[in-house]
Amino acid sequence: MVNSLYKAALHRRLITINPAAGVKAPTERVDPASNISYLELDELELLLGEIESQLNQAKTNKQRLPLLRDRVLVGIMSLGSCKKIKLPELEQLYIYCTTSKVTSDFIADILESWWKDNCERFAHIKTLRINQDNGPANHSRRTQFMKRMVQFADKYELNLKLAYYPPYHSKAAFL
User: Fold this and answer.
1) Number of domains, the chain
2) What is the C-alpha separation between 59 and 68, in angstroms, rounded?
3) Does residue 2 form part of some domain?
4) Do 72 and 139 belong together in one domain?
5) What is the tens place of the pLDDT at every residue in 114-123?
6) With contact defined as beta carbons under 8 Å apart, do 98 and 80 qualify?
7) Measuring CA to CA, how many Å separate 167 from each of 30, 44, 82, 137?
8) Distance between CA atoms of residues 116 and 94, nearest Å
9) Which of 24, 72, 85, 124 has its CA 20 to 30 A from that of 96?
């Protein structure tokens, strides 16, 4: 599909090369995110050391800012698993981390905590659309997750629209 899009753009002379030429769809029907492993402590120290080294060599704030961002994000992600609540129209991002594996209850708890803190601000909102990655903790066949979402919706008298990203699409490109 992507290849066809680029072919059409080439045909209409909107681009000069097809960056998807020769790329084939995966034959394995496994979510690539399920193969992500965690950094060992020595690997984390090496990564943070490299960021620190580049930070020491940076001469301007424009060079320092992305390195400081990377250091903060790597530090946050090293705590364990993270989930985010993003409000793109307001350019706001809330990051919640746990030192254990992300579970259905963790996701429901952070959503409820966030809503309690922000419900007055959004009193006019009656429907929440929740974009999700369809991972093991929150897919639509996960009964604990669905149970908690129904409880949340009932408790706060909200309509929820659960939207799932298509399979094989990465959502966690922080760095």
Assistant:
1) 2
2) 13
3) no
4) no
5) 999 989 999 9
6) yes
7) 9, 29, 20, 15
8) 14
9) 124
Does 74 share its domain with 87? no
Same domain, 95 and 134: yes
**Domain's final residue, options 54, 78, 102:** 78
Cα–Cα distance between 148 and 140 in angstroms, integer? 12
Q: What is the mean pLDDT of residues 139-165?
A: 87
CA distance 138 to 150: 13
Q: Tell me, yes or no, whether 26 lies in a domain.
A: no
Q: Range of 156's domain?
A: 80-166
Q: Is 74 exposed, middle or buried (0-12, 13-18, 19+ CB in 10 A)?
A: middle
Q: Residues of 99-108 as b/e, b for ≥16 C-beta within 10 angstroms?
A: eeebbbebbb
Number of H helices, E strands in the chain: 5, 4
Identity of residue 97: C
CA 70, 99, 51 angle in degrees (round to 5)?
Answer: 20
Contacts of residue 40, defined as CB under 8 A and 6 or more positions apart, other chains included, come to: none
3-state SS of 107-140 is HHHHHHHHHHHHCCCCCCCCEEEEEECCCCCCCC
Kindly list the distances between the CA atom of residue 119 and the CA atoms of 125, 128, 134, in Å, as whole numbers in the listed order: 9, 12, 26
pTM summary value: 0.52
